[in-house]
Amino acid sequence: DVKVTQSSRYLVKRTGEKVFLECVQDMDHENMFWYRQDPGLGLRLIYFSYDVKMKEKGDIPEGYSVSREKKERFSLILESASTNQTSMYLCASSLGGEEVWQYFGPGTRLLVL
Amino acid sequence: DQQVKQNSPSLSVQEGRISILNCDYTNSMFDYFLWYKKYPAEGPTFLISISSIKDKNEDGRFTVFLNKSAKHLSLHIVPSQPGDSAVYFCAASGITGANNLFFGTGTRLTVIP
User: Fold this and answer.
1) Which residues of B are less than 8 Å from A57 in CB distance?
2) Which is nearest to A33 in space by CA: A90, A96, A107, A98?
3) In terms of CA atoms, which chain A residue is nearest residue B8?
4) N or C: which end of chain A has fewer CB within 10 A?
C-alpha cells in the first residue's frame, strides 16, 4: 500500500512565523503535490513537483514556497505565516504516466493566530 | 475559473436508497475523471475513475457515468449506507504533463439511518 505521511496533524503558529510542512511518500512516486482545502472552495493546488529539485506553481502559490531535495520528500514552506493561511493542508503523490490518481496524506490542520 | 464544478454542496439520503452525486466540467480536453471520498480529519481516498473512452464504470455499489457531450459525470451509490457519509470530490485530468488533477468543490453526503 502506498503511504503518504505528513509531519504534523495539527499545528498552531503565530503571524509572521516561518512554517515548514513536511511530506514523505514511500512508493517511489515521481509526482508530488501540495493542496489546501477550505470550506466551499474544495482542493486548491499550491505547488507540485514532477522530479527532484523541480517545482511548478499551482493555482495559489502566493505566500508559499516548496523544496524537493529527495524524491520521497516534498516540503511546503510558509515564509511568513498569515491568518489567511489557516487551513487544512494536504500532500499527495502519484506515479505519473498513465496512472493519474493521487494518493493523499492525512492532512495538517494549521491555525495561524 | 473553476473548471470542475459540483453545484450541490450537500445531499441527504435515506439508508438503502440511491445517492446520486453530480459533477460538471468545462474543458473538453479532460480525458480521465476520478471520484474521491473524504472523511473529516483524513486525507481524500480514491474511490472510482472513468476514462473518456467509456461512458460507465462500475465497482460494487459505486457506478460512475460519463456524458461527454454534456460534460457531465455522476456517481451513483446503491444502496447507500451510513458509512458512506463523507465529502465527495470529483476530479479531472489530462491537460498537463504532470498528471495534475482539477478538483471540484465537493458534495457532503449524509446517509440517514
Assistant:
1) none
2) A90
3) A40
4) N
Residue B95, pLDDT score = 60
Chain B residue closest in CA terms to A6: B43
Which of A43, A50, A99 comes nearest B98 by C-beta?
A: A50
A43 closest CB neighbour out of B89, B93, B98: B89
pLDDT digits 0-9 by tens, B29-60? 898 999 999 998 889 999 999 999 999 999 99
How many Cα atoms within 13 Å fall on the side-chain side of residue B1? Answer: 4
pLDDT band at A82 (very low <50, low <70, confident <90, very high): very high
d(CA B91, CA A43): 10
How far is Cα of residue A34 from the mean position of the Cα atoms in its chain? 3
